[in-house]
Amino acid sequence: MEQIRQYLEKTANLTDRDWNFFCSRLIREEFPKKHHILKAGQTENHLSFIETGMVRFYMPKEENELTFSFVFEHSFVSGYNSFLTQSPSAYNIETLTKTTLWRLTYNDLQSIYSETEIGNTIGRKAGEDLFLKKSLRELSLLNESAEQRYLNLFAEQPKLIKEIPLKYIASYIGITPQALSRIRKRIS
User: Is residue 29 over pLDDT 90?
Assistant: First the structure.
Protein backbone atom coordinates (compact mmCIF):
# COMPACT_ATOMS: atom_id res chain seq x y z
CA MET A 1 0.00 0.00 0.00
CA GLU A 2 2.94 2.31 0.67
CA GLN A 3 3.85 2.07 -3.04
CA ILE A 4 0.53 3.69 -3.92
CA ARG A 5 1.13 6.55 -1.52
CA GLN A 6 4.60 7.12 -2.96
CA TYR A 7 3.16 7.05 -6.47
CA LEU A 8 0.45 9.59 -5.58
CA GLU A 9 2.79 11.86 -3.62
CA LYS A 10 4.95 12.33 -6.71
CA THR A 11 2.26 14.59 -8.11
CA ALA A 12 0.14 15.83 -5.21
CA ASN A 13 0.27 16.79 -1.55
CA LEU A 14 -1.53 14.04 0.29
CA THR A 15 -2.76 14.83 3.78
CA ASP A 16 -2.94 12.06 6.35
CA ARG A 17 -6.72 12.53 6.52
CA ASP A 18 -7.11 12.10 2.74
CA TRP A 19 -4.70 9.16 2.68
CA ASN A 20 -6.54 7.42 5.53
CA PHE A 21 -9.88 7.88 3.77
CA PHE A 22 -8.40 6.68 0.46
CA CYS A 23 -6.65 3.61 1.86
CA SER A 24 -9.71 2.64 3.93
CA ARG A 25 -11.42 2.00 0.58
CA LEU A 26 -8.61 -0.10 -0.90
CA ILE A 27 -9.02 -3.86 -1.10
CA ARG A 28 -5.93 -6.05 -1.51
CA GLU A 29 -6.48 -9.07 -3.74
CA GLU A 30 -4.11 -11.76 -4.97
CA PHE A 31 -4.67 -13.57 -8.23
CA PRO A 32 -2.93 -16.65 -9.61
CA LYS A 33 -1.18 -16.73 -12.97
CA LYS A 34 -3.56 -16.92 -15.98
CA HIS A 35 -6.55 -15.53 -14.03
CA HIS A 36 -9.04 -13.26 -15.77
CA ILE A 37 -9.58 -10.14 -13.70
CA LEU A 38 -11.95 -8.88 -16.41
CA LYS A 39 -13.68 -10.85 -19.15
CA ALA A 40 -15.23 -9.53 -22.32
CA GLY A 41 -18.90 -8.84 -21.64
CA GLN A 42 -18.33 -7.98 -17.96
CA THR A 43 -18.44 -4.43 -16.67
CA GLU A 44 -15.24 -3.19 -15.03
CA ASN A 45 -15.95 -2.18 -11.46
CA HIS A 46 -12.37 -1.56 -10.28
CA LEU A 47 -9.51 0.83 -10.67
CA SER A 48 -6.50 -1.18 -9.50
CA PHE A 49 -2.85 -0.59 -8.67
CA ILE A 50 -0.46 -3.46 -9.35
CA GLU A 51 1.72 -4.10 -6.31
CA THR A 52 3.40 -7.13 -7.86
CA GLY A 53 2.94 -9.01 -11.09
CA MET A 54 1.81 -8.11 -14.58
CA VAL A 55 -1.28 -8.35 -16.74
CA ARG A 56 -2.13 -8.36 -20.41
CA PHE A 57 -5.11 -6.93 -22.26
CA TYR A 58 -6.36 -8.93 -25.19
CA MET A 59 -9.23 -9.31 -27.61
CA PRO A 60 -10.61 -12.83 -27.66
CA LYS A 61 -10.61 -14.21 -31.21
CA GLU A 62 -11.49 -17.65 -32.52
CA GLU A 63 -8.09 -18.23 -34.14
CA ASN A 64 -5.51 -15.96 -32.53
CA GLU A 65 -6.04 -13.69 -29.55
CA LEU A 66 -4.91 -10.11 -30.11
CA THR A 67 -2.76 -8.83 -27.22
CA PHE A 68 -2.80 -5.04 -27.21
CA SER A 69 -1.33 -4.01 -23.86
CA PHE A 70 0.81 -5.14 -20.95
CA VAL A 71 0.76 -3.42 -17.56
CA PHE A 72 3.51 -3.99 -15.01
CA GLU A 73 3.90 -3.53 -11.26
CA HIS A 74 3.61 -0.09 -9.68
CA SER A 75 1.08 1.06 -12.27
CA PHE A 76 -2.66 1.54 -12.42
CA VAL A 77 -4.69 -0.99 -14.40
CA SER A 78 -8.33 -1.02 -15.38
CA GLY A 79 -10.66 -1.72 -18.26
CA TYR A 80 -10.95 2.03 -18.05
CA ASN A 81 -13.47 2.71 -20.80
CA SER A 82 -15.79 0.09 -19.26
CA PHE A 83 -15.06 1.51 -15.78
CA LEU A 84 -15.91 5.07 -16.78
CA THR A 85 -19.06 4.23 -18.71
CA GLN A 86 -20.10 1.28 -16.53
CA SER A 87 -20.77 -0.68 -19.70
CA PRO A 88 -19.53 -4.15 -20.78
CA SER A 89 -15.91 -4.56 -21.81
CA ALA A 90 -14.96 -5.75 -25.30
CA TYR A 91 -11.71 -7.31 -24.09
CA ASN A 92 -10.14 -9.46 -21.39
CA ILE A 93 -7.55 -8.60 -18.76
CA GLU A 94 -5.52 -11.60 -17.61
CA THR A 95 -2.70 -12.01 -15.11
CA LEU A 96 0.56 -13.29 -16.62
CA THR A 97 2.12 -14.06 -13.24
CA LYS A 98 0.85 -14.26 -9.68
CA THR A 99 -0.40 -10.72 -9.23
CA THR A 100 -1.31 -8.60 -6.22
CA LEU A 101 -3.69 -5.69 -6.77
CA TRP A 102 -4.93 -2.89 -4.56
CA ARG A 103 -8.43 -2.16 -5.82
CA LEU A 104 -11.03 0.58 -5.56
CA THR A 105 -14.61 0.02 -6.65
CA TYR A 106 -16.33 2.53 -8.90
CA ASN A 107 -18.58 3.66 -6.02
CA ASP A 108 -15.67 4.00 -3.59
CA LEU A 109 -13.80 6.14 -6.10
CA GLN A 110 -16.86 8.38 -6.39
CA SER A 111 -16.82 8.75 -2.57
CA ILE A 112 -13.12 9.60 -2.65
CA TYR A 113 -13.83 12.28 -5.26
CA SER A 114 -16.52 13.88 -3.13
CA GLU A 115 -15.11 13.37 0.39
CA THR A 116 -11.44 14.30 0.05
CA GLU A 117 -9.50 17.34 -1.08
CA ILE A 118 -7.14 15.21 -3.13
CA GLY A 119 -9.74 12.83 -4.63
CA ASN A 120 -10.14 14.52 -8.00
CA THR A 121 -6.38 14.79 -8.37
CA ILE A 122 -6.00 11.08 -7.64
CA GLY A 123 -8.62 10.19 -10.24
CA ARG A 124 -7.20 12.60 -12.77
CA LYS A 125 -3.65 11.25 -12.32
CA ALA A 126 -4.78 7.64 -12.65
CA GLY A 127 -6.79 8.54 -15.76
CA GLU A 128 -3.89 10.52 -17.22
CA ASP A 129 -1.52 7.62 -16.61
CA LEU A 130 -3.82 5.19 -18.41
CA PHE A 131 -4.43 7.66 -21.26
CA LEU A 132 -0.72 8.36 -21.78
CA LYS A 133 0.09 4.65 -21.98
CA LYS A 134 -2.66 4.19 -24.54
CA SER A 135 -1.49 7.17 -26.60
CA LEU A 136 2.13 6.03 -26.56
CA ARG A 137 1.02 2.58 -27.70
CA GLU A 138 -0.95 4.03 -30.61
CA LEU A 139 1.96 6.25 -31.67
CA SER A 140 4.31 3.28 -31.45
CA LEU A 141 2.08 1.24 -33.76
CA LEU A 142 1.94 4.10 -36.27
CA ASN A 143 5.59 5.20 -36.20
CA GLU A 144 7.85 2.33 -35.17
CA SER A 145 8.90 -0.95 -36.69
CA ALA A 146 8.05 -4.24 -35.01
CA GLU A 147 11.71 -4.55 -34.04
CA GLN A 148 11.69 -1.12 -32.37
CA ARG A 149 8.46 -1.96 -30.50
CA TYR A 150 10.09 -5.16 -29.23
CA LEU A 151 13.24 -3.29 -28.15
CA ASN A 152 11.12 -0.66 -26.37
CA LEU A 153 9.18 -3.32 -24.46
CA PHE A 154 12.42 -5.04 -23.54
CA ALA A 155 13.97 -1.75 -22.36
CA GLU A 156 10.87 -0.92 -20.30
CA GLN A 157 10.74 -4.18 -18.35
CA PRO A 158 13.80 -6.37 -19.09
CA LYS A 159 13.26 -8.74 -16.15
CA LEU A 160 9.53 -9.15 -16.52
CA ILE A 161 9.45 -9.53 -20.29
CA LYS A 162 11.23 -12.86 -19.88
CA GLU A 163 8.08 -14.18 -18.20
CA ILE A 164 5.77 -13.23 -21.09
CA PRO A 165 5.14 -16.01 -23.62
CA LEU A 166 6.58 -15.13 -27.02
CA LYS A 167 3.21 -15.56 -28.74
CA TYR A 168 1.81 -12.70 -26.62
CA ILE A 169 4.79 -10.45 -27.36
CA ALA A 170 4.48 -11.20 -31.09
CA SER A 171 0.77 -10.36 -31.01
CA TYR A 172 1.48 -7.16 -29.07
CA ILE A 173 4.02 -5.88 -31.59
CA GLY A 174 1.83 -6.94 -34.50
CA ILE A 175 3.78 -9.83 -36.03
CA THR A 176 3.81 -13.61 -36.09
CA PRO A 177 5.81 -15.64 -33.55
CA GLN A 178 8.08 -16.73 -36.41
CA ALA A 179 8.85 -13.11 -37.36
CA LEU A 180 9.60 -12.37 -33.69
CA SER A 181 12.05 -15.28 -33.62
CA ARG A 182 13.85 -13.77 -36.62
CA ILE A 183 14.03 -10.36 -34.89
CA ARG A 184 15.35 -11.92 -31.69
CA LYS A 185 17.96 -13.86 -33.63
CA ARG A 186 19.04 -10.73 -35.54
CA ILE A 187 19.49 -8.56 -32.43
CA SER A 188 21.17 -11.22 -30.24
Answer: yes
